[in-house]
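Student: I would love a firmer grasp of how sequence relates to backbone shape in proteins. I am handing you a single protein, as its sequence and its fold in token form. I am told such tokens are a discrete way to write the fold. I hope you can help me see how the letters and the tokens relate. Take your time, and here it is.
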Amino acid sequence: MKNERRGFNKPPLFKGVRYNYWKQRMIAFFESCHIDMLDVVENGNNIPYYDNLNEPPRGRWNDEQKQRHLLNSKAMNSTMCPLSEEEYTKVHSFKSTKEIWDTLIISYEGFTKVKPNKIGLFTC
């Protein structure tokens, strides 16, 4: 049983091909990890801010803020680890999984003729 569980908790690899297949598998992976993880991935809101858009010290975060940040960290790890080196270089500097997710969507969804132009935007 131990070997079965190990394969179940591993995110699918992404090497820049078959994006829609990978995306659907990642959605299933996020949902299997935590009920709110996909919400953090798709909608962000994982870093708390004061009204003046400054981030409060982590020691002042409430439990909900800590939980959302933790979910983002786990989702970010789950999203970046299965990326090939080429895909990783496009998103490695982002601080939220939403930024990574949105960049991959822009890069790989849409018409085939548009994709090379979209991908070029992120490699400049």
Observations:
- Residues 1-7 have pLDDT under 50 and may be disordered.
- The helical segments are 2-8, 19-33, 37-43, 63-80, 85-91, 97-108, 115-123.
- The two ends are 47 Å apart (CA to CA).
- Residues 2-123 form one domain.
